[in-house]
Amino acid sequence: MSMNAFMASAPSLASACIAQSIPLPSVFGANILSLHATPVTNFSLPSIPIQVWTKSQFDAVDFCNVTVKYSRPGSDHNITVQVYLPPPSEWNGRFLGAGGSGYAATQGLVTTIPPVDAGFAVASTDGGVSTLEFSSAEWTLLSPGNPDYARINIWSSAVLNDLSIIGKSVTNSFYGQAAAHSYWVGCSQGGRQGNMIAQRYPDAFDGIIALAPAINWAEFFPSMQFPHQLMYESDYAVPACEREAITSAAFNACDGLDGLVDGVLSRPDLCKFDPLTLIGKSYNCDGTNKTFTTEGVKIIQDTWTGPRAADGRFLWYGYGPDADLSYVANTTCTDQNNCTVAPFSLSQDWLQLWVAEDPTLNMSNLTRDDFTTLIHQGINRYDSIVSARDPDISRFRNRGGKMLTWHGYTDQLIPYQGSQNYHDRVRELDANVNDYFHLIDWVEKGIAPDQLTTVNLTNVDPNTGRPICLYPKVQEYIGGDEDMMSSFRCVSP
What we know:
By secondary structure, the chain is α/β, with parallel strands linked by helices. The chain has 13 helices and 18 strands. Strands 1-2-3-5-4-8-9-14 form an 8-stranded mixed beta sheet, with helices on both faces. A two-stranded antiparallel sheet has the order 6-7. The longest helix has 27 residues. Its EC number is 3.1.1.-. Belongs to the tannase family.
């Protein structure tokens, strides 16, 4: 049946959204417990533009919510997959999986409603764990010293293939035909999930958008904790004003290195700013003159450099000089002279619960050797389970899969150089990586993008914006109106 003929004969949402008309999906190794279907009409969602969707307000969205619960042997925790299906007359013939954030396998409505509004059948999974983004404390340990490895394994990878199978099955049953193409879209944790899919389940999706992917999981969490480790070691908690003033000084020194002073630092590789030159100089903090401290400057400098062992050995990458460090280097101050470290649960959970397996581990008295040992223990125990950093994605390539990823230089949680490192490692195995590692036109028409475009969502004009260049090329200003695409080009660094 052609799509036009299908739409002309399509049933209404209410008549199609009936659980009895949707057979239970069959998932190898899983036990399907229940399936419920509920029509949802006139749904609205005030939101901010995220990922690839270009609307900030969604109104009058209709869809069928099919909720499937299942379990896997070895774990007594149920897993929930939700499939949102637009009315048959509005379906674009495509299926999409939506990823999570932090420790959560799903971001909920903010990542499912936008593609439903665009006509996709959309599936998400809770991964069998609580949906708390910033903490895994509810599910990591069976008891102190005993990680719930079965649950961690299911959450980290198995649920992703399950989502694809369940979502496609429900989509096929609901519309009476299979989706013509399938896509995965995720950022951060969702990007890690996308990479994991390409590496382990190459048949699950035709196209994968993996943004700011939280790969190298066992490596980058120590980068996230490192600023606080430095504060503990030096017995100095950097006040927010000092931290922000150091960041601003670096930004002001390096903003113009791309040829244009515009509030965008697009060439961090050229930024050779030495923060040690700030020591002893004054900065303004809420109207009061303060002095840059040796401890504060060195902590921020080392945060940019990234974790190092006591003997200086490289452990992982640091953050861009203009990254907002208010999460990873956060402190609480009663005044500017009395500050304490404000622990960040994302990284603290990793080191306390996943690695040390001890929720009472005192993070404030770790030596650098202790810290380095924890890093190595985390890599040894979890790299193959969760890090999603295997560079061999040849099976995904061979079956025609396409992947698109980007990573912001100012990422405040996941060091962007980890993504560059992964791309380079893939390229070492396959020099033609850019043939598939660059989506809909690419997947469905074979038209590969050589650059992407940033746009102002209040004035979507194809002539305005900035190019996002295909790595390793970088953006270069060549003159003219800084809001126009024609004022920039992509060049090799």
